[in-house]
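Chapter review. Work through the record for C-type cytochrome before attempting the end-of-chapter questions.
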Amino acid sequence: MTVLAALAACKPPPQSRHIGDQSTMARGKQVIAQAGCGACHEIPGVAWPRGKLGPSLMNYDDIGFIAGSRPASIATLATFVRDPRSVRPDSTMPAMPISEADARAVATYLYGQDDD
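Structure tokens for C-type cytochrome:
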């Protein structure tokens, strides 16, 4: 019992690794709705639509790699959102016609959703 308590004390509390400011996260959620990302993906905080064509974006905070190959970061995800084939040439996701700032807001929103 003492060992378990000691191990639990070493583990940091569960929380998002990427905490963005609230206005950027709100903008990201708005961009997701306007761009229709939910048509292909299940997205935290988006009740409808909840597409199944693309991978679920639930628990995105816990993802290790973007497109299965690049270490997760807001910058890499923002690049992927705007131009997926620049990150993964065989990606089937279409390029999204959004600004760099909006793509970064989308990435900030997704990483900021701690679904644990």
